[in-house]
Amino acid sequence: MSDGALRVLSYNVHRWGDDRTALARVVRACAPDVMLVQEAPTWFGTRTKRRAMAASFGMRYVAASARNAILVADGIELDEPLHWRIWRPFVRRRLNFVATQLPGGAVGGQVLIGTMRVAVVGCHLGLHILGRQHELEQVLKGCRAFGTPYLLAGDLNEEPDGPVWKRLAEEGLTDLGADAGPTFSSTNPHKRIDGAHLSPTLQGRILPTPASSEDLAAASDHLPQLIELRRGTRPADQ
Fold this sequence. Notes:
By secondary structure, the protein is of the alpha+beta class. It is 23% helix and 35% strand. It contains five helices and 14 strands. A hairpin with a 2-residue loop joins strand 8 (104-113) and strand 9 (116-124). The protein is globular and about 40 Å long. Residues 234-238 have low confidence and may be disordered.
């Protein structure tokens, strides 16, 4: 952290199952203070895998829920971490297609930007359109529980004309990525399904990702979102 700014990286890392060396280069190039991970590695040896992944980035694994995790850089403390499971239908049906869904969750904690306490929350919403809306209400309830301004970022599995994005706007949150371009897929970016949303009293912006297109394509199926948060409030007319 420098000059009263906090760098937060929100990234679906595709279960840490693609090119791990390329992924480490991407994360290290972004130099985040806090990383909100979606699709963190799981199953056998979950904590060991997540600690190893964090170490490859030069970071520490501090909290998680379901496949969401928070990592922090040296010198960054995450206070009062909250991690909660969110209800999600086990079976997803669409036309004649039936599939199971993995459990959902969200994770967050508080950090200081100068003397300002801010919550950072990561989530990964499901594939069922009605289920996503129900999940989001649970995530927003958790965000409010911190009692501070907050950043909510993650894989929303929906494009900006969908009901989840409309609900985020109704909540009074600012969409930081409106002009940032698509986030999926990394090899053929054509959809913006990852979001970064801020409370009205926070300043923030999406920064360009300082990594090569080759590394981004090899590291994961999603593109990362590098977010800069600053203390202070936005002017009333913004």
